[in-house]
Amino acid sequence: MAARRGIGSMAQRTLMVLIDLDETLAAFEKHFMIKFREKYPNEPYIPVEKRNTFYIAEQYDKLNFTDDSVRLELKKIYRSEHFFRDLPEIEGGCDAVKEMAEMEGVEVFICSSPLFQYKYSAPEKYEWVEKHLGPDWINRLILTRDKTMINGDILIDDKIHITGALHNPSWKHVVFTAPNNQNMKVKGDKLRLNNWTDGTWRTMIEDFKKRL
Ligand SMILES: Cc1cn([C@H]2C[C@H](O)[C@@H](COP(=O)(O)O)O2)c(=O)[nH]c1=O
Ligand SMILES: [Mg+2]
C-alpha cells in the first residue's frame, strides 16, 4: 500500500476508499421504475421512496399485477442492453468522487458488482464510469461479485448487508442512504452517509485519515 511522507517525516499511509456504483453513484432504482412504467403502464408499481428491500423483485412480488407474467418478466428490465449504461447520476456523487480523489493521502476506487447475467452489465459499467468520471477512471474500476475480497479502508455502499468469503473484510462499511435501506437500522460500528451534496463526506474522509 502506498505511503506518503508528512511533516516531520512521519510516514502517513494513504486512505484507500472503495465506492460502490449502483445506488451510490448511479440511480438504479429510479431508472428501473421509469423503465417499468414505460413497459407496464397499466400495472401497479412501487415509487422509489416506498422501496424497502435490496432486491426489487422481492417487493414487486407482493403487488397484485393484472398480468401475472410481469412478476417473472420484470428482471428482464435491468438485464437488458443499455440499462446500466443509461443509469442517471445520483446528485453530487461524481463531483464528490473526483474531489475526493484529489485529496492528499486519499486513493479512490470504484467497486461494483455486475449482475450474474453479466453480458451487458459488466461492459456497461465501464462505459458508465468512462462517461461520468472520465477515461482515467477505467483504471480504478473494480468489478467483483465478492466485495469482501477487496482490500480497502472504507467501502461506501448502499447494500446494508455485504457478505462474501471473508467474514472480516479489511474495509469499514459506510452505508450510503438509498431507498432500499432508508428505514433500516445501521448495526454495529457502521456509519451512514446520507447524500453527496451536504459536504458530510469530506468530514468523514478527513476523520478516517486522522485515524490511520
Ligand atoms: C436492486 C437490485 C440490484 N441487483 C444487482 C444490480 C447490480 O449488479 C448489483 C448491485 O451492485 P452493487 O455493486 O452492490 O451496487 O445487484 C439485482 O440483481 N437486483 C436488484 O433488485
Ligand atoms: Mg449498490
From TrEMBL:
Keywords of this entry: Hydrolase
Pfam families per the UniProt record, alphabetical: NT5C
Single GO BP term: pyrimidine deoxyribonucleotide catabolic process
GO MF entries: 5'-nucleotidase activity
Annotated EC: 3.1.3.5
InterPro entries the record matches: 5'(3')-deoxyribonucleotidase, HAD-like_sf, HAD_sf
Catalytic residues, chain numbering: 20, 22
One Gene Ontology cellular component: mitochondrion
SUPFAM superfamilies with a match to the protein in the record: HAD-like (SSF56784)
Name of the protein in its database record: 5'-nucleotidase
Provenance organism: Mytilus galloprovincialis
